[in-house]
Amino acid sequence: MAVLDLFIASSIPVIKVLVITALGTFLALEKVDVLGAEARKHVNNVVFYVFNPALMVASLSQTITFQQMVKLWFMPVNVLITFVVGSVLGWMVIQLARPPKQLKGLIVGCTAAGNLGNMFMVMIPAICKEKASPFGSPEVCQSYGLAYSSVSMALGAVYLWTYVYSIMRASNPVQVAGGGGAGGGHDPEKLTVSITTTTTTGTVGSSLEHPLLLHSSTSNLDKMNAAGDENSSSFLQRVKQVLARALGSVNWKTIFAPSTIGVIIGFAIGLTTPIKNLLVGDQAPLRVIQDSGVLLGQAAIPTLTLLVGANLLRGLKGSSVKTTVIIGIVLARYVALPLVGIVVVKGALRLGFIPADDPLYQFILLLQFTVPPAMNIGIITQLFGEGESECSVIMLWTYALASVSLTLWSTCFMWLVSSS
């Protein structure tokens, strides 16, 4: 297949994204105010609670089977590699750019977490419709592409709100005001110190004040056993405290977001043949439910793209973020990570971890290394109240340059998967 045809096939979807994104930015202008701050909040809630879950359920329930589950086992590993390598690259950017302390977590978050949901939902259907696409029938390509993208979105959400959230939380001294949980108003470090001090004080106090312990004449063996029991108890307490801190720092509510629940329901329907026969297919008795879900899910893609454009408007106002920081993030996400992705995916293909007869699956695995930073990074900065304007500037430049990066890398990836 000619490289020019592949370039056109990969550039058309990116241009579509840019056009809709520009429209979203226009609608968010103060003079227009169709997607102002209040409107974006309500539209985002509709997308978050209705459109995205419907898209997850509709796409997964149609295509997921046990054979597909076996095929997809490498995707969680692939996504984890993107996050780990991205965080290492973010640490390198910090060492070179020397940013302020409050921006270190933001930089690592932007290099580690890619937009593994929205960009795929927009790009994959558009690529499938192109005649020069190497992924076969547009209908089959779109169906499986949305299923793969749905799994990618769920995995990205889980890793973002556990791995990246914990890194940004640990590097940000500002605590989230409000209730408990991961975003509670209490500092877990101080709570742990207080608990440890209280426990130790209570143990020592009881040992000194108890009359039987003051006047007893135990043997050396009894003393050793007592010390061993105390050390064992102390060790178990430390383990419990570490587990409590680890589990307490996880934002469970955001991990089990409506989109993730939609993925779980979609898997349950797709893997349960009796339920699937009731809901999915032209002859299914309850096909109206599935058709309604498909109709709602189709609204997610254009609405999400409009919201991305509207949210980028804040970045136009600028901030004090260093140019070296932006350049470092761009090089990490659009140069270093894609090169690592080629090595990882090609290595997994050679080792037999990835099926060689599914170029679309290979393409999505490669694309996971290339997308711009996750938009939810902005939500995390809002939770901590630090780096919001800097995050908007970073998002503006990374998404603007993504038009060039995604086009070039998509062309390269299509050529790689079609020639293998």
UniProtKB/TrEMBL annotation:
<dbReference type="Pfam" id="PF03547">
    <property type="entry name" value="Mem_trans"/>
</dbReference>
<comment type="function">
    <text>Involved in cellular auxin homeostasis by regulating auxin metabolism. Regulates intracellular auxin accumulation at the endoplasmic reticulum and thus auxin availability for nuclear auxin signaling.</text>
</comment>
<feature type="transmembrane region" description="Helical">
    <location>
        <begin position="147"/>
        <end position="165"/>
    </location>
</feature>
<feature type="transmembrane region" description="Helical">
    <location>
        <begin position="325"/>
        <end position="349"/>
    </location>
</feature>
<keyword id="KW-0927">Auxin signaling pathway</keyword>
<dbReference type="GO" id="GO:0005789">
    <property type="term" value="C:endoplasmic reticulum membrane"/>
</dbReference>
<dbReference type="InterPro" id="IPR045033">
    <property type="entry name" value="PILS1/3/4/5/7"/>
</dbReference>
<keyword id="KW-0813">Transport</keyword>
<feature type="transmembrane region" description="Helical">
    <location>
        <begin position="6"/>
        <end position="26"/>
    </location>
</feature>
<feature type="transmembrane region" description="Helical">
    <location>
        <begin position="361"/>
        <end position="384"/>
    </location>
</feature>
<feature type="transmembrane region" description="Helical">
    <location>
        <begin position="396"/>
        <end position="417"/>
    </location>
</feature>
<feature type="transmembrane region" description="Helical">
    <location>
        <begin position="72"/>
        <end position="94"/>
    </location>
</feature>
<keyword id="KW-0256">Endoplasmic reticulum</keyword>
<feature type="transmembrane region" description="Helical">
    <location>
        <begin position="106"/>
        <end position="127"/>
    </location>
</feature>
<dbReference type="GO" id="GO:0080162">
    <property type="term" value="P:endoplasmic reticulum to cytosol auxin transport"/>
</dbReference>
<protein>
    <recommendedName>
        <fullName>Auxin efflux carrier family protein</fullName>
    </recommendedName>
</protein>
<dbReference type="GO" id="GO:0009734">
    <property type="term" value="P:auxin-activated signaling pathway"/>
</dbReference>
<comment type="similarity">
    <text>Belongs to the auxin efflux carrier (TC 2.A.69.2) family.</text>
</comment>
<keyword id="KW-0812">Transmembrane</keyword>
<feature type="transmembrane region" description="Helical">
    <location>
        <begin position="255"/>
        <end position="275"/>
    </location>
</feature>
<keyword id="KW-0472">Membrane</keyword>
<dbReference type="InterPro" id="IPR004776">
    <property type="entry name" value="Mem_transp_PIN-like"/>
</dbReference>
<feature type="transmembrane region" description="Helical">
    <location>
        <begin position="295"/>
        <end position="313"/>
    </location>
</feature>
<keyword id="KW-1133">Transmembrane helix</keyword>
